[in-house]
Every structure is written in structure tokens, then in C-alpha cells.
Inverse folding.
């Protein structure tokens, strides 16, 4: 086991600094390739995980906006969906930032929407009291609508 591999196991922060220095100096033969590949893979997974999480929260709030209105119809004038709107705005802004900083994630957007939608219906049902069965089985919103800062689904 190389010194750099040992450093990885015991002092990750120093391992990253040392690895960056070796890369800058072009000293590729001294790199801890196995752990470097592992960390690069994990970085990609982490970004994808964040994309799915943000989509889950956003989709849950779009669903609540659309389907919980019936339960709140009498109080809607006072409620106005401000909490949901704020969360929708925040998640869209975070998604725009994430996609701007990681353009490669755009290729994973459709799959991430599919992956997060089931989680979003569960979350929306738990938070709203609306039955999961009340929500469409597949995501009713297009990619464009999901990311469009002006899109709010019609209230059912």
C-alpha cells in the first residue's frame, strides 16, 4: 500500500491536497489511482443524488399546489399557498444553479424526474393528507414546466 493510500485512509483532507498537488505537477505515476477513481465516481453520484432530492421536493409541492387546493378551498384566500410557492421558487432556483454548474446533469434530468416522482407522491401524500391514489401514476409535468419559474399547475 502506497503512502498516499495510507493517507487516504487516515487523513482524507491531506490526501485531497496531496493528490491535487501531484496532479498540478504532472506527477501521475505517484497518484493513488484507485481512490482517485472512487472519489470521482462518488462526486458524480452525489450531484445526481442532489438532483433527485431537489426534484422530489419540487414535484411534491407542485402536486400539493394542484391537488390539495380542494381541501383548502375555503381558506385559500388567507392561505394563498405562500409556503408552497416559496418552496417551489427555492427548489427551482437550486435546480437552475445545480444544472448551470453541472451541465452534464441535464442528460440525467428525464431519468431523475422518473426516479423522484414516486418519492414525490409519497411525500405529498404524507404532508397533505391527500391519498397517493389521487395523484397521477406518472409525472404530469414536462421538464420545461418543472423548471419554468412561471409555471404553476391548475388547481384541481
Amino acid at each position: 500500500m502506497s503512502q498516499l493510500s495510507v493517507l487516504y485512509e487516515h487523513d482524507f483532507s491531506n490526501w485531497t491536497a496531496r493528490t491535487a498537488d501531484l496532479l498540478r505537477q504532472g506527477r501521475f505515476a505517484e497518484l493513488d489511482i484507485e481512490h482517485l477513481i472512487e472519489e470521482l465516481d462518488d462526486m458524480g453520484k452525489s450531484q445526481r443524488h442532489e438532483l433527485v432530492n431537489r426534484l422530489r421536493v419540487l414535484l411534491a409541492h407542485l402536486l400539493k399546489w394542484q391537488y390539495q387546493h380542494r381541501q383548502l378551498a375555503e381558506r385559500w384566500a388567507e392561505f394563498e399557498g405562500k409556503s408552497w410557492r416559496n418552496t417551489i421558487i427555492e427548489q427551482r432556483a437550486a435546480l437552475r444553479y445545480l444544472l448551470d454548474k453541472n451541465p452534464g446533469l441535464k442528460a440525467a434530468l428525464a431519468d431523475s424526474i422518473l426516479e423522484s416522482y414516486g418519492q414525490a407522491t409519497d411525500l405529498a401524500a404524507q404532508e397533505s393528507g391527500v391519498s397517493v391514489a389521487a395523484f397521477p401514476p406518472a409525472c404530469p409535468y414536462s421538464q420545461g414546466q418543472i423548471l419554468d419559474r412561471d409555471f404553476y399547475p391548475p388547481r384541481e
Notes: The chain has a mean pLDDT of 89. Residues 43-147 form one domain.
